[in-house]
Amino acid sequence: MQWAGLVPAGATILDVAAGGGRHAVFFAGRGHKVTAVDRDTSALAAQPNLEIVTADLEDSSAWPLPSRRFGAVVVTNYLHRPILPVLLDAIEPGGVLLYQTFMEGNERFGKPSRPEFLLRDGELLELVRGRFSVVAYEARLISEPKMAMVQRIAARKL
Ligand SMILES: C[S@@+](CC[C@H](N)C(=O)[O-])C[C@H]1O[C@@H](n2cnc3c(N)ncnc32)[C@H](O)[C@@H]1O
Fold this sequence. Notes:
The chain has 158 residues and is mainly beta.
């Protein structure tokens, strides 16, 4: 929500691993066309401006949205490193990446604790280097909704 104003007016949004759709619904409510993808879309209710795609993002044989491009990609609390390049490619020039998930150090507070689910120090910065302009980046301890170590980035594609 803090960085939603970076998303160009009228941009299409991809909410990756959308879960209950808190971000998908938020952006649809702002008038954006939103595609929400998750392997379990049972908690997502149909509404105007919302396309619901049920797919396993960790099925390496097929990206569920081939050739689709978006004005913003939003990912929160999800990490599957093999699809990161695909997510960046799916953003149009001038479009925005909003990404927040857990990072190393989160093991102290519980799950996720396995390295494959935790960003390494500076990893989101490395991910976008040379291809995006970084608007905001944080790597920090948060206390709400629970104590956690997170990394978050807002970046615009060059
Ligand atoms: C912690 S939830 C985050 C949901 C949402 N992004 C949020 O922050 O409210 C993680 C989501 O990733 C989805 N997920 C996990 N593995 C997945 C996979 N292989 N393919 C698609 N979605 C997956 C889960 O179904 C779940 O909705």
